[in-house]
Amino acid sequence: MAAAEREQFHVCQVKRRRVKATGGYEPFWKVKTVAEALEDADTEFRCKDCGGALKLYKRRAENGSAAHVEHKLKSDSEYCPSGLHFLKATDGREPRPSQFPVR
Q1: Selection from 29, 27, 26, 19 nearest residue 52 by Cα
Q2: Which residues of the chain have pLDDT under 50?
Q3: Which member of 7, 20, 24, 95 has the greatest number of CB atoms within 10 A?
Q4: What does the DSSP assignment read for 32-90?
């Protein structure tokens, strides 16, 4: 029996901080590969296309799949232009931002 097809992203947005011109810090989102985000110990992730929440999967074994992220919500995958369910849809749906974006 074949394994179920799973959504896998290797690029996402991570939340970072930068110094504001007026002093203090401000948050911003930066696009990174999942491998880079893990190396940099980033902790907040979101989809670069829809802004939805993602679940992180770290590489568990040397011969296992590479570190990646997947949408937490099926509804995000159904309407994200990179989502597995969106790409498989045949009903002509239009992409849209997540209904529950990570801010």
Answers
A1: 29
A2: 1-3
A3: 7
A4: EEHHHHHHTT---EE-TTT--BEEEE---STTSPPPEEEESSHHHHHHSTT-HHHHH--
